[in-house]
Amino acid sequence: MKKIIALALTLIMGAGVLTGCGSDGQGEATGTKIYRTADEIKESGEIRIGVFSDKKPFGYVDEYGNYQGYDIYFAERIAQDMGVELEYVSTEPASRVEYLKTGKVDIILANFTVTDERAESVDFALPYMKVALGVVSPDSALITSPEQLNGKTLIVAKGTTAETYFTENYPDVKLLKFDQYTEAYNALLDGRGDALSTDNTEVLAWAIQNPGFSVGIESLGDIDTIAPAVSKGNDSLREWINNEIVSLADEQFFHKDYEETLAPVYGENVNIDSLVVEGGVVE
C-alpha cells in the first residue's frame, strides 16, 4: 500500500511539473506566471529591459562600458517614470522572444519589429518608430535591386525580419546568418558576403560611418513599426507602457530622443518624421 501511495504522489507531482508547456505568459508551465506585472516591478524596485549591445545607434555599449542609443534613451525614461532602478540585459535578435517567454526580462526594447508571427508569442505595446528593410553593399559592386542578389550571398542576423523576408521572397539568395550584428558586419567588411540586409535605419547609419559602402536599396518590403514587447498576457505592463508612450507625445519625447542619439549619426541624410512615431500614432 505504501508503495502504491508513493507512486501515486510521484505521478501527481510529475503531472504538476508538466502542466501546460504552453505560452500565454505562463512560461514552461501553464499554471506558473513567469512575468511580473507593473505593480510587481514597482514593488521590487527594479526593472529588467532586454536591449542590444552591438547595434549602434539604437542599442550599444560605448568605449566606457555604458549603454547608449535610441532604445536606451527610452529605457531610461521608463525606469525613471516607474520609479525603479534599471537593469540592462543584453540580447541577440534570435533571443528576444525567448527572453520574454522565460521571464528573463520584463520588456524588450531591442529595435523589435512588429510582425504577426511574433505577436503570437509576445504582446507588443504602441510603436515608437517606423522602419523598412535596407540593403548595404560595397560601392565597387553596389546592389540596387533584390534580384541582383539571386545566386549571391546576403548576410543577415538570425531571427530578423530580413532573414524572414528573403527566405520567403527570394529563395535563390544564399543567406549567411550570424547571431550578432557585429559578426554580420565584420563578415561584410571581410568580403564573405555580397551585401547585408537589416532595418534601413541601421544600414544607413552604418554606411555613413564606413566609407566604401552604400545603401543601394533604401526601402524594401512593407513599412513596419518598432515597438516595446512584453510577455504574452502581461496586460498590466503593456497598458502601463502604452499610457507612457501616449503621455510622452506632449513633450515630443521621441523627437528629442532622435536629436540626442540618431541625428549625430544621420545628419541631414534622413527625414526625422520618416522614422519617429509620437503617441503611438503612425502617420
Descriptive labels:
single chain, 283 residues, alpha/beta, 5-stranded mixed β-sheet, 3-stranded parallel β-sheet, 13 strands, globular
Task: Walk me through the structure.
The chain is an alpha/beta fold and 283 residues long. The chain has helices at residues 2-17, 38-44, 70-82, 96-101, 116-119, 161-169, 181-189, 200-209, 235-248, 253-261, 263-266; strands at residues 46-51, 54-55, 59-61, 67-68, 85-90, 107-108, 122-124, 129-138, 153-157, 174-178, 195-199, 213-226, 229-231. It has a five-stranded mixed beta sheet with strand order 10-9-11-8-12, with helices on both faces. It has a three-stranded parallel beta sheet with strand order 5-1-6. The termini are far apart.
Along the chain, the helix and strand elements come as HHEEEEHEHEHEEEHEHEHEEHHH
Query: How many E strands?
Result: 13
The percent range for helix content is 25-40%
Distance from N terminus to C terminus (CA atoms, Å) equals 71 Å
Strand composition percent: 15-25%
Structural class: alpha/beta
Sequence of strands across the biggest β-sheet: 10-9-11-8-12
Q: Tell me the overall shape.
A: globular
* Overall radius of gyration: 21 Å
Q: Segments where pLDDT lies below 50 for 5+ residues?
A: 1-24
Mean pLDDT: 90
Give the topology.
Blueprint (H helix, E strand, L loop, with lengths): L1 H16 L20 H7 L1 E6 L2 E2 L3 E3 L5 E2 L1 H13 L2 E6 L5 H6 L5 E2 L7 H4 L2 E3 L4 E10 L14 E5 L3 H9 L4 E5 L2 H9 L5 E5 H10 L3 E14 L2 E3 L3 H14 L4 H9 L1 H4 L17
Parallel strand pairs: 1-5, 1-6, 9-10, 9-11
Antiparallel strand pairs: 2-3, 3-4, 7-13, 8-11, 8-12
